[in-house]
Automatic annotation (TrEMBL):
All copies of domain Glycosyltransferase subfamily 4-like N-terminal, residue ranges: 13-183
InterPro entries noted in UniProt: Glyco_trans_4-like_N, Glycosyltransferase_grp1
Protein name: Glycosyltransferase family 4 protein
Taxonomic superkingdom: Bacteria
Species this protein is from: Siccirubricoccus soli
One Pfam family linked to the record: Glyco_trans_1_4
Family annotation (PANTHER family): SULFOQUINOVOSYL TRANSFERASE SQD2
Length: 381
């Protein structure tokens, strides 16, 4: 099948991992995929973003920047239409973005099957954090794209609820969570003897992750083996965490790798004894959870609906009440003192990935099947 993939991503981060991984998996399944998006995406390095976009957001009043986002749909539509004329796609797949109408409009004009991947309710998200001036317009464009899709693909059932509330018919919604490429994560080897138990975190480090509490708890831990923290990533919370570790006298046990390329992640996660997901947005499908599962790590994560869609407490992870002070650390301490439990949970987490096919290849097969079903539906008299 020839699939035209439309997006508006301009940075290289978790969003780009999802995009690149799904496209690679679709191609590996034998489909032709043409990706059409901003030129800045191809030029950006991992962790970087478009300087022009950052400048526009800084200089323009918020309402003007949002109108510019909406106006971008016009040149994006022309670029997408030119690509479609040359490529002659049989279907259009789009990663949803706020104020971005190009794929929906072109699919309607060409009468092509249209799938929309939804990773967040962006109108609600931006309004909540004070970053939205034209709320009514944003919500209208969001509903327009979601309802235009033949199938909408939210990454969690929690997010699917947002789509249903926006008027998307339940039968047109299929939850497709993030995934992983198991080929990048070899079967976990037995842990090598180490002088400390390593707690690990992958991602962009923000204050709300609560890693400061982890650093304090490491300093006060009394166990057979000391604990250390390895943070794979970068973020605004890093300087404060490093200063806190120095103040507590454990600077040598709190390490940051800085930004790490995708090829380095499996090897770094393999060094974790306990993998941390300290907090999660309520509707997200955290990519790091799938990395931890594929690596066969013992996971500590918040007990909330979107996380329970993937992990089961006591079976594939230890889940903690995010509203209970000290609950996360109690789970960490339990695992730190019980290597057999760590091994059991890690093995079960990896087995869950295999059993449920929580992979990019599996997602590619689901997407292709949806496109095929829509083509057959349209072909019926």
């Amino acid at each position: 099948m020839r699939i035209l993939y439309s997006h508006r991503i301009q940075s290289r981060d978790g969003m780009s991992v999802h995009l690149d991984s799904l496209v690679a998996a679709l191609r590996a399944e034998g489909h032709e995929v043409l990706v059409v998006g901003p030129s800045a995406y191809e030029e950006a390095g991992f962790g970087g973003e478009s300087r022009l976009t950052a400048l526009v957001r800084r200089l323009l009043p918020r309402f003007a920047a949002e109108l510019a986002e909406l106006a971008y749909s016009f040149p994006a539509y022309l670029r997408l239409a030119r690509a479609a004329h040359a490529f002659r796609p049989e279907a259009i797949y789009e990663r949803y973005n706020l104020f971005f109408l190009s794929g929906a409009l072109l699919a309607r004009r060409l009468k092509l099957p249209f799938l929309v991947e939804v990773n967040a309710p962006l109108a609600e998200e931006r309004a909540r954090f004070g970053g939205l001036a034209l709320g009514a317009l944003a919500r209208w464009t969001e509903r327009f794209v979601w309802r235009a899709a033949d199938r909408a693909l939210p990454v969690t059932e929690v997010l699917a609820g947002h789509l249903r509330a926006a008027g998307v018919a339940p039968e047109r919604i299929l939850v497709v969570p993030n995934g992983i490429d198991l080929a990048e994560f070899p079967d976990p080897a037995p842990p090598a003897p180490k002088p400390a138990v390593t707690l690990g975190f992958v991602g962009f480090v923000r204050e709300w992750h609560g890693l400061d509490a982890v650093v304090r708890a490491i300093a006060g831990f009394q166990g057979d083996m000391p604990l250390e923290l390895l943070v794979v990533g970068e973020g605004p919370a890093r300087p404060g965490l490093e200063a806190l570790a120095a103040e507590l006298g454990i600077a040598d046990r709190v390490r940051f790798t800085g930004l790490a390329g995708r090829e380095a992640i499996p090897g770094l996660v393999a060094g974790f004894d306990i993998a941390l997901q300290p907090a999660s947005v309520a509707y997200a499908s955290p990519l790091k959870v799938f990395e931890y599962m594929a690596a066969g790590r013992a996971i500590v994560a918040p007990d909330q609906p979107n996380i329970r869609e993937v992990l089961r407490d006591g079976e594939t992870a230890l889940l903690f009440d995010p509203a209970a002070p000290g609950a996360m650390w109690a789970a960490v301490e339990r695992l730190a003192r019980d290597p057999a439990l760590r091994a059991r949970l890690g093995a079960a987490a990896r087995a869950e990935v295999v059993a449920r096919d929580l992979t990019w290849a599996g997602n590619a097969r689901r997407v292709a099947a949806l496109f095929q079903a829509e083509r057959e539906r349209r072909a019926r008299p």
